[in-house]
Amino acid sequence: xxxxxxxxxxxxxxxxxxxxxxxxxxxxxxxxxxxxxxxxxxxxxxxxxxxxxxxxxxxxxxxxxxxxxxxxxxxxxxxxxxxxxxxxxxxxxxxxxxxxxxxxxxxxxxxxxxxxxxxxxxxxxxxxxxxxxxxxxxxxxxxxxxxxxxxxxxxxxxxxxxxxxxxxxxxxxxxxxxxxxxxxxxxxxxxxxxxxxxxxxxxxxxxxxxxxxxxxxxxxxxxxxxxxxxxxxxxxxxxxxxxxxxxxxxxxxxxxxxxxxxxxxxxxxxxxxxxxxxxxxxxxxxxxxxxxxxxxxxxxxxxxxxxxxxxxxxxxxxxxxxxxxxxxxxxxxxxxxxxxxxxxxxxxxxxxxxxxxxxxxxxxxxxxxxxxxxxxxxxxxxxxxxxxxxxxxxxxxxxxxxxxx
Length: 405
Prior knowledge:
CATH class of the largest domain: Mainly Alpha
Number of strands: 13
Radius of gyration: 29 Å
Oligomer: single chain
């Protein structure tokens, strides 16, 4: 084989011959492609025929499975040879099985990545050489192992192991970059890694810290809202505690706006025209509650808190996309009914929590009933249950609750 061939296993599977993609040719045989991928993952050992038959035809019966495998290998070798002369020899026959053979001129991103990972083990100093190795490792890991391939479970464990290895490399690199105060590269590295793992708490936190260190606190706050959204939308949970704590730290420093004085004045003027309730993240909601509750206590009054929850009838779950639409509609209703001085937070994917500083039990119940009526006017005939509860913060007083039928 005289041409340069590159097999990519990290991210979407691909075969490059002299930098030209041959995926369309190889994709003609899905079982042949699965055979090649499985052999590559077992490249250091031959695989017996019976194991390959079990992998390739898990729920099929054949009168002559050995012959079916032999025919598949022959045909797929022909396809590989059409990509590059002699490439089919990478599927080598052994006694009672087959193995993957690395030919001259053939390289594999998986092996290169694992080799770099070994070389970086225990690295504690960021030199020109190690910096280049970290950058190469980030470039090699284009995505999860065999991303998008329709396999059963034979590649899952290896994929999880490789992803963990990738994250360890990223974490180590970020620590070295932070020690060198190279925050711009921290930001870039975090963003690259978050494309592969968008829910990783440590990556989000490192990115937020780097943004604050480069006086880009506004971007850090925008990132927090993004993290809150994807956690609500996909995990049904609030952001991790560490990220919530850092968000609270940002807003308490007072360094959340890097704007000119005239810009600040303009924003304050614009906010003065907003007569609805104030929406914020739960960490800020708790702070606002504390500020409003203390003077009410001195006056002998109570702070009332309300919660609204949307659920499916008979406990049936609501599809995430539909729940998004419903909760956005509920938010519009809340902004319409609540007053300036009230505060609300999206507590969970299906819940809003309200802070009502100037109500009593009866007026609070009337507000919640008005919200419920407007909600069902907006969503007539919707097959959902609108439940609410309103109570003073003091546990000694009774609360009011109801649910829509």
